[in-house]
Specification:
It is a single chain. The chain is an alpha+beta fold. It folds into two domains: 38 residues, no CATH class; 162 residues, no CATH class. Helix content is 29%, strand content 21%. The chain starts with a helix and ends with a strand.
Amino acid sequence: MNETGRDAGLVPVDRRTTPRRWLLLAVPALVLVLGALAAVVVPRDTDGPPTRFASPLDVLGEPLPGRAPTVAPTKVFEVFPGLTLDKVTDAWAKRWPVPVTVDGALHIIRVTLPGKQGQLSAAVGQPSKDRRDEVAQILCRVKLRDAVRRPLLQTLVDGCIGPALAAKERSVVLDWLIGVDFSVPNLESRRTSGYELQAVHNSDTTFALKLFAR
């Protein structure tokens, strides 16, 4: 190398070793790229049942109101111990003698409530079509004709989600709902060791209770 090249800070290049150096640099980069792809591409497990919030809630007439569904951490459904589909639908039939329709894992009734309470669409959900003797969720949606008042709340607690709750728990839930301000759009949740209850008032025309086993 001449003096000019040395003064400019140039480093002599050995052309025989250049390809090897590029290979050594390329291998770590390739590992990083493959690692990133592995983190993104996850095999889809299609053998198990869907997550808890994947039930077709829109079969009640339109999507139930509220925040976007939360994805459950696992694909395992929790169920209400000792509660069967027939116990729920039989209890409904005693109060509301209307036909039950079936949509997948949901069994649904639709009834006009007395007075100005509105029109109720109620659904009881099984964990899956193959687990017909278990109950994972109860959904109650009302098209309101009036404000959300105590008679409506009591009807929903005793009549709609009541089959899944003990008498004492129904009283506790009713007191909790009465204490919530549903004069404005609101979403409140109550969680215990046995269930999660979501109460949703998204507008002046819709109110819903969604009870999930946990």
